[in-house]
User: Fold this.
Amino acid sequence: MQIAESVENQVTILAVSGRVDSSTSGALDESLQAAIVKAGSLVVDFSEARYISSAGLRALLKAAKAARANGRRLALCGLSPLVHEVFDVSGFSSLFEIHADRGEAVSALA
Assistant:
């Protein structure tokens, strides 16, 4: 898994690529927590992520709670059908603001 950080229209974007699983979820958690502290709004772009495990979902849930506690907005975008299915089956789709692509997510949060 790799994470690239960028900023568009004052929205921080973390672009996640590869597999988010038990061996990589710690790095995702660290990146999310650091971005929440310094960012006003945060988009996590999963357009290049091909898999997410329960460990990855746990990192996202922790980030969502931290974002709310800090008055920040967090949105997800670019979920592949497989990743979106994991969110749907786990019930996480209702916990996150999910957009089709990065442009839509940035526009919603800017």
User: Anything to note?
Assistant: The mean pLDDT is 94. The first strand starts at residue 2 and ends at 8. Residues 17 and 49 are 4 Å apart (CA to CA). The helical segments are 25-38, 54-69, 81-90, 102-109.
